[in-house]
Amino acid sequence: MKNRRLKRVVAATLILVWLAAQNFDAQTALAWAGSQAKAAKKPSASATHNSEKRILAAEKGAGEDGNWLAHGRTFNEQRFSPLKQINDKNVKDLKLAWSLKLDVDRGTEATPIVIDGKMYTTGAYSIVYALDAGTGKLLWKYDPKVPRDYAERACCDAVNRGVAVLADKVYVATLDGYLVALDQATGRVAWRVDTIIDRSRKYTITAAPRIAKGRLIIGNGGAEFGVRGYFTAYDAKTGKQVWRFFTVPGDPKKPYENRAMEMAAKTWTGDKYWDYGGGGTAWDSMAFDPDLNLLYVGIGNGAPWNDGHRSPGGGDNLFLSSIVAVNPDTGEYVWHYQTTPGDRWDYTATQHMILADLNIGGQTRQVIMQAPKNGFFYVLDRKTGELISAEKYVNVTWATGVDKKTGRPILSDTANYAKQPQLTFPSPYGGHNWQPMAFNPQTGLVYIPAQEVPFIYVNDPKFKMNKRGFNNGLGLIAQGIPEDVFSVSAILSLTSGKLLAWDPVNQKAVWKVDYDHPFNAGVLSTAGNLVFTGTADGRVVAYSADKGEPLWQAAAQTGVIAPPITYTVDGEQYVTVMAGWGGALALVGGDIAKAPGVRSIARVLTFKIGGTATLPPLPAEEPMPEIPANTASAETVQKGRELYHQYCVFCHGLAGVGGGVIKDLRYLSAERHKSFVGIVANGLPGKGMPDFEGTLATDEIKAIQAYLIKRANDEKSRKAVNNRK
Ligand code: CA
Question: In whole angstroms, how far apart are CA 581 and each of 161, 538, 559?
Answer without folding.
Answer: 14, 8, 4
